[in-house]
Amino acid sequence: MTANSSNTHTGNSFLLTNISELYTLSPLAKEGRLTNVQMSDLGMERNAYLAITDGKVVASGTGEPPKTYQAWKKIDAEGRLVLPGFVDSHTHPIFAGTRSNEFLMRMNGSSYQEIAEAGGGIKSSMTATRSASDEALEQSTLANLKTLLSFGITAVECKTGYGLSPKEELRLLKILRRCKDKVPQHLYVTCLALHAKSPEYPTFKDYANACETELLPVIKKDSLADAVDAFIEKGYFSVDDVRDFFLTAKKLGLGIRLHADEFTDAGGGAFAAEIGAITADHLQFASDHSIQMMATSGVIATLLPGSSLYTKIPFTDGKRLIHAGVAVAVASDFNPGSCVLNNLSLIATTAAIHCQVPPAAVLAGVTYVPAVSLGLKDSKGALANGFDADFTVWTHRSFADWLADFGREKPRMVYIRGHQVY
Ligand SMILES: [Zn+2]
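Above are the sequence and the zinc ion SMILES. Below is the predicted complex in structure-token form.
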């Protein structure tokens, strides 16, 4: 990678040249379409250039750049693949402690129930997180975000969820707010207070009610989150436990994202459609009725194949969702217990192999579709003119090389708004 500084540099303008394959996803971004993604929607240009001014894409094309750009500083991509920066729309990056002991127990044949009885699961992360200082949590979260950046992730949804009381969840939200100013990525914050039952409340419903009355007004007043989320599952929160919480959240203008139908059909997908959620995530056991409702209401399905790989639960059938007309995103689900993976390239290839998501939908699923789910439909997840110049340059020379590589290679370079950040 060489920067030719002998050319005249015009402001913050530069040309990325000699790109073997450039994927702009412009056809999708121009239409704002999220479904029926074909290879022709990916806006692929061979032997391409990308022109950038003040952090935005202003032009792209094949062959020699037009004369207007000839005098700009040039950065030689050396015949490599260039993709839009990845958007990871489901992560749990703020926690303390490790759950490697539980992994060992699982590999030695312990059941989830035995692990929970031994103090494991979400509760063990809660205990460690509650006892960690603000400073320690901020440092570990920043380190996690830096790792995500090294995998080409330029925008990230970050969930809380290991505080499990209104007071502790507020603490985590405030730490995430501080992290926003310290990383180059765009951070979108989701309050997942309703991740599991709080030990301080007798029932799931009591805890959800406390979060509705004590947490939501503060989140709104201090602008602490973009969205709220809950783990809707048999043995966790039921739809009835959380309905009032989400109705209030909606009135306050907060986005709604849901963990739905991961282990059983608990009606989470249908509830997502009913309540007007942005996304419903996991969905291995979503009923046909739920999927149809999601398609009709435009709820985005987020597939999280990393947790299936890591905990040996079934993979979500992405083909079924796509055929029903549901928009599909693919995210990491990075968390300390059920998915320690944060390599979105590996997860994208896993979605292709195990969730039967076609290659074109895989690329849209880690770029433009999740960007739309984070409210970034005009700025991230594509390299159309006017979009932020968030992109990755790979060792690979083609999209096929990248998808077939199974995440072995990290990007050589990561740019956010025209600045090299990795
Ligand atoms: Zn999750």
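Residues 83 and 392 are 5 Å apart (CA to CA).
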